[in-house]
Amino acid sequence: MKIPEELKGKYDEIAPMVVSFCDEKLNDEYKSLCLRLLEKLCRKRPSPLLGGRTPTWAAGIVYAIGQANFIFDKTQELHLTATGISSFFGLAPNTAGTKASELRKMFRIDNFNPEWQLAEHIEDNPMIWMVQVNGLIVDIRNMPLELQQQAFEKGIIPYVPGNRIKIEVTDEEIRPVPEKQKSPEKKEKKKPRAAEEPGQKELLF
C-alpha cells in the first residue's frame, strides 16, 4: 500500500516501534495486521496521525489489533496484559486503551470483521459465521453449500467454509487462497471486501 508523501515521516516513526514490539512479543502475522492498520491511518483523509504522539499511536495500533484477536485471554498461546503492551511504549494502560478504542471505531476492528483477525481466529470465531437466512440467525457453516456460496458472493462471509477456501483481505479486494490439502480445491472468484457488517447481513431465499 502506497504511503502519501506527507505521511512518510510519520510512518517511519511509528512503524519501527510496532515492528519491534511484534518481533519481541508477538509474530509476523500480528506484525502484518498492525502495519496494515498503520498504512490505512496514513491514507485516511485527513490522517489522524497528523496529531498525537508517536508512542501513543504505536501502542493503540497494537492494542486494537490485539483486542480483535483475544490477546488478553490467558488461554491463547499468544497473550499479553494491557500493562504489558502499554509499558513497552512507556504509556499507561488507559492511554493505550483509549487510542485503541478510537481506532476500533474508525476501522471497524471487531470480532465480526475478518480483515483484522489472525487466520486461526477467523475459522473458529462463530460471530463471523452468524447470518440471517429468511429472518432466522444461523451458523452458515451448517447450511448447504449453495447458501454458503451466496453468502460469500455477497461479501457476508470471508470464504466458503464448505470448500475449505481461505482468503487474503486487501484494501481493494478479497482474493481466495486455497488452503493446503491433499486434494486441490476449486478457487472462488475474486469478490469485493467484506460488507460493512459481516456476519449480520441477511440472505433471502
Description:
- The protein is mainly alpha-helical.
- It folds into 2 domains: 5-109, Cyclin A, domain 1 (Orthogonal Bundle); 119-203, no CATH class.
- Helix content is 44%, strand content 10%.
- It contains 8 helices and 5 strands, in the order αααααααββαβββ.
- The protein has helices at 8-25, 28-43, 54-68, 82-88, 93-107, 119-124, 126-129, 145-153, and strands at residues 130-133, 136-139, 165-169, 174-178, 202-203.
- The strands form 2 sheets. A 3-stranded mixed beta sheet has the order 2-1-5.
- α2 (28-43) crosses α3, α3 packs across α5 and α4 (82-88) packs across α5.
- The longest helix is centred in the first third of the chain and has 18 residues, at 8-25.
- The protein is globular and about 50 Å long.
- Residues 165-199 have low confidence and may be disordered.
Keywords:
two-stranded antiparallel sheet, Cyclin A, domain 1, 10% strand, 205 residues, three-stranded mixed sheet, globular, 44% helix, 2 domains, mainly alpha
User: In the CATH scheme, what's the topology name of the largest domain?
Assistant: Cyclin A, domain 1
Structural class: mainly alpha
Number of helical runs? 8
* Portion in beta strands: 5-15%
Number of domains: 2
